[in-house]
Design a protein that fits this description.
about 300 residues, alpha/beta, five-stranded parallel sheet, elongated
């Protein structure tokens, strides 16, 4: 698909079939592609940025290339490089050049998806600035490559204050449209967990999602868990229940699965005197009732309970 063919209701419907909720974000993304604009999706981990981009590429039929953003992503790794062994034998020239993902995307008219954009070194970002401005890439000793129709840079980034990230320069911001993606509502997150785990909707599942959502507003927690934490909690609970020949919804199973699934995902404030396990156990108690039944793993704070109640 090219041009106005991207902004069609049937294309939107295909993306919506793959993504839970997010209709406004999907519509803006398709509009950006249709208008030949580059776009940056900004939001915390676990908000479905990659899922949206992949579903959009599949629905539009555009070629798709993925680049993982990190400090070692050099311009040569992004654009391409000359094969040293062939250069020794043949000298520099087009035949010795190995295309990188950017050059492939330019020549194929593909979506180049850059993950973790604000972890990419500045010198590599400068390469993107040129191609976004001019629609072409110049490679010394090889030539100039003009972007084919459909070439689009779609990038995802965490909020700039996340660990290991930096502010994106105004030169990048001025050449992209920005789409903010926050966490979805509880109903959508339940649907995501059900889709990834096969679990049925239930008060217990609603409690799992609620506990994960509360990690994002807890006073001791600086960074909360995404919906991936709820997915792992459900899957762990189901497996633990089989090992223990008990119900996955039982108190001991749920709290042990919660500690394993969430304690490594949350980041506490430096001023907090609690451990991640203690915070998760307390959250479990707030949502489900008593902290844990006997036979569960230690909570580290000495509290052991007996009952479990589900939220209304």
């Amino acid at each position: 698909m090219r041009g106005a063919e991207l902004a069609r209701p049937e294309v939107l419907a295909r993306v919506l079939a793959r993504v839970v909720g997010r209709q406004p974000e999907i519509e803006v993304t398709l509009a950006a592609l249709d208008a030949a604009r580059h776009i940056v999706l900004e939001g915390p981990p676990g908000t479905g940025k990659s899922t949206l981009v992949r579903a959009t590429a599949d629905a539009t039929g555009l070629p798709f290339l993925l680049v993982e953003g990190h400090a070692e992503l050099t311009p040569a790794r992004l654009v391409g490089h000359h094969d040293p062994s062939r250069v020794l034998a043949e000298g520099y020239g087009p035949a010795t050049f190995v295309e990188g993902p950017l050059l492939r995307a330019v020549t194929e008219g593909a979506i180049l998806y850059v993950e973790e954009l604000n972890r990419v070194p500045e010198e590599t970002l400068n390469v993107l600035i040129t191609v976004m401005s001019e629609g072409e890439v110049h490679v010394p000793r090889v030539g100039t490559f003009v972007a084919a129709p459909g070439f689009t840079i779609m990038a995802a980034m965490n909020p700039y204050d996340a660990v290991g990230t930096a502010r994106i320069s105004s030169a990048i911001s001025d050449r992209t449209c920005r789409l903010s993606m926050g966490y979805q509502d509880a109903a959508d997150e339940r649907q995501i967990v059900m889709r990834h785990t096969g679990a049925a909707d239930s008060p217990w599942l609603a409690g799992v999602v609620e506990m994960v959502r509360r990690t994002r507003a807890h006073p001791d927690i600086r960074v909360g868990a995404s919906v991936r934490g709820a997915i792992d909690l459900v899957l762990l609970a189901e497996s633990l229940a089989r090992l223990r020949s008990t119900d996955a919804h039982s108190a001991g199973v749920t709290v042990d699965a919660a500690r394993a699934a969430l304690s490594g995902r949350i980041r506490l404030h430096e001023s907090s005197n609690a451990t991640p396990e203690q915070v998760v156990t307390a959250l479990w108690g707030d949502v489900f009732g008593e902290p844990a039944e006997r036979g569960s793993l230690p909570a580290e704070d000495g509290r052991l309970g007996k009952a479990i109640r589900f939220p209304a």
